[in-house]
Structure formats: structure tokens, C-alpha cells
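Figure 3 (text version): C-alpha cells given as input.
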């Protein structure tokens, strides 16, 4: 008989898949690390498992405890899975820009979800960060993993994602590209790949235009799960050699192409990371191997990125008319044709 004792054992060991069509005109090999194949459907299963097991060991989380976290969904799913299997309760807070599909998923796993306004500052008492803080204070046995400051977040990628990529590429990876949210993925994976390669692997962060990582102030953008309006502790500013800023329009166009042309139905931050990866890969030669991490699947975005009406509402499907936008369209057409 071959079986796993619990769904928890399915976390990690995701495959690499070569991108074949969106890479037209590029000679470098571009490989996608497909994280939606984790049991909870995203890269966040990795950090959830590691944060919970570390808290059990330290005594921060005790039998019968409640896990409370501000999350845009994916970390919640990972935590809900792990918590359910280990017998803990879960309460999540999230901003109201998060798709209802994602919130319904959390509730389906048995978690409680508190939806908070997006359009308030992080320090505002109604922000999803502050609401989670209050819930931790008020809930007996409450424990907050805090993926933004928990060292186990980057540590999980140092221990799993990095070694997997190094082993899967037989040490031939030259560039690693990942979106930056909490910064855990790029920090842990990047640190491992730098160390194991003696500094040879270049680490590239992808960021929505307007977010702090690419020099913005946190101006609202629509891509979910990446970009911040503050600097999280989980992010090591020294690890990325380069940060590539990507506009929502380009992120979403690429997200749709990944489904139609590569058979990869993935989320908006995946499209964003691939846009950045292709910008980098265009400068490279046939001896280079770029690995781009795709954090989650596209099912949670069917009513947004994959919906023509939603895309048209934001002007993402229409031809822009101002000078700057015309330049943008021309540049993208040239990019698509190259
Ligand atoms: N994409 C999505 C969809 C996410 O949920 C996250 C996590 N916030 C990321 C990308 C970024 O990963 P990290 O937090 O490790 O920087």
C-alpha cells in the first residue's frame, strides 16, 4: 500500500515546468515552480506548516489553542489545513478587496473570517492588521503566527523551496524570480540559492507598481498577495539584486496568457512574476536558466482577472488613449511581437 498519513505530508516538493509559448523569442530556459500543486493550493502551505510546528515546540501554541492571522487568503488556507489536522481553531482577518471566492474557501475549511475595510491605514483600528491584534489580546489561548515578522516564514523557504529548486535544476539555475509580499519566499529561497551557489544565482523581486519594494508609497494596486505599504521583518532588503515593478495591466494580461497558452490557470501575482522573469530572460542567453515561482492557482480569480467585464471596468481590456498609455501599449506590442 502507498498512502500518506495526512494531507499535511503533501506540502512542498512541487514540480518545475518549462514555459514554452510566452517565452517566444527568448533563448534562456524559463522554468515555473508550480506552487498551486500544494494541497491547500498555494506556496503558503509551506510557511503554515513550519510556523505551527515551531509554535508547538516553543509552547506558544498549546492544545485547544486558536490561530489568529491577518491574511489575504492563501496563508489562511495553509493554516486552516494544518490547524484542522492538528486540532486548533482558526480566525482570520482580511481586507475587503480580497475575492469572495477566497473567503468562502477559508470558511469551507472551517475557519472563521472577519472582513475589514481595505481603504484605511495599517495603524487604523479597523485595518485587518489591527483587528487581528485585538482578537489575539481578547482570545484565551490565541496565537498569532504573524507571517510578516515570523522568522519561520523565510526559514521554511530556506529549508524547502530553495533546496528543491537547486536539486531540480541540478545546480544550473542562474536567476530566481519571485513576487514580494511578506518577503518570505524571496528571502528564504534567495538566501539559500545564494549560499549554495557561492553568490552566483541572481535574485530578482517582482513588485506591483506603487508598492514600497519598488520605491512607491503603497498606492492601491489590484494584484493580490504582493506589494506592501510598509517594510515587513520577514523581508531581507539585502537578498534581492534587482526589483522589477510591474503594472496591474501587464500582470493580468500575462495571467490570462498563462492559462490560454501554457495551460497554467494561476493567480495574478503569478502573471506579475512571469512578466518580471521575461524582462530579465530577454537579456540572457541559451546557457541561462531562470526559475520563476508561481504562488497560487487561478480559481480564486475567475470573477476578476478571468472575467472580461471586470477587466473592462478597470480599462485593462481597452486601448489606452493618453500619450503615456499609447507608449505603454506600443511597448507591450513590441514586447509581444519580439
Ligand atoms: N502571491 C500570492 C498570491 C500570495 O498570497 C503571496 C503571499 N502574500 C505572495 C505572492 C508573496 O509571497 P511572500 O509573502 O512570501 O513574499
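Below: residues designed for each position.
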Amino acid at each position: 500500500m502507498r498512502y500518506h498519513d495526512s494531507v499535511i505530508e503533501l506540502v512542498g516538493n512541487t514540480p518545475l515546468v518549462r514555459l514554452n509559448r510566452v517565452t517566444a523569442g527568448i533563448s534562456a530556459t524559463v522554468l515555473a515552480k508550480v506552487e498551486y500543486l500544494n494541497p491547500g493550493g498555494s506556496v503558503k502551505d509551506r510557511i503554515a506548516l513550519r510556523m505551527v510546528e515551531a509554535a508547538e515546540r516553543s509552547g506558544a501554541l498549546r492544545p485547544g489553542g486558536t490561530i489568529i492571522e491577518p491574511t489575504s487568503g492563501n496563508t489562511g488556507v495553509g493554516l486552516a489545513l494544518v490547524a484542522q489536522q492538528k486540532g486548533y481553531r482558526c480566525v482570520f482577518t482580511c481586507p475587503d478587496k480580497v475575492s469572495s471566492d477566497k473567503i468562502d474557501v477559508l470558511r469551507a475549511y472551517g475557519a472563521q473570517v472577519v472582513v475589514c475595510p481595505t481603504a484605511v491605514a495599517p495603524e487604523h483600528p479597523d485595518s485587518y492588521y489591527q483587528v487581528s491584534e485585538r482578537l489575539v489580546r481578547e482570545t484565551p489561548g490565541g496565537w498569532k503566527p504573524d507571517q510578516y515578522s515570523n522568522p519561520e516564514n523565510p526559514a521554511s523557504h530556506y529549508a524547502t523551496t530553495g533546496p528543491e529548486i537547486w536539486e531540480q535544476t541540478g545546480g544550473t539555475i542562474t536567476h530566481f524570480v519571485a513576487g514580494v509580499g511578506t518577503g518570505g519566499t524571496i528571502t528564504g529561497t534567495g538566501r539559500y540559492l545564494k549560499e549554495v551557489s557561492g553568490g552566483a544565482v541572481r535574485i530578482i523581486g517582482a513588485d506591483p507598481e506603487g508598492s514600497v519594494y519598488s520605491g512607491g508609497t503603497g498606492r492601491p494596486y489590484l494584484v493580490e498577495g504582493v506589494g506592501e505599504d510598509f517594510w515587513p521583518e520577514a523581508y531581507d532588503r539585502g537578498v534581492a539584486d534587482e526589483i522589477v515593478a510591474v503594472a496591474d495591466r501587464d500582470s493580468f494580461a500575462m495571467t490570462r496568457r498563462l492559462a490560454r497558452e501554457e495551460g497554467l490557470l494561476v493567480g495574478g501575482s503569478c502573471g506579475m512574476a512571469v512578466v518580471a522573469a521575461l524582462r530579465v530572460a530577454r537579456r540572457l542567453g541559451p546557457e541561462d536558466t531562470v526559475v520563476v515561482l508561481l504562488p497560487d492557482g487561478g480559481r480564486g480569480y475567475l470573477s476578476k482577472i478571468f472575467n472580461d467585464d471586470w477587466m473592462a471596468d478597470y480599462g485593462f481590456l481597452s486601448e489606452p488613449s493618453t500619450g503615456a498609455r499609447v507608449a505603454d501599449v506600443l511597448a507591450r506590442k513590441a514586447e509581444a511581437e519580439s
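Residues 321-327 have pLDDT under 50 and may be disordered.
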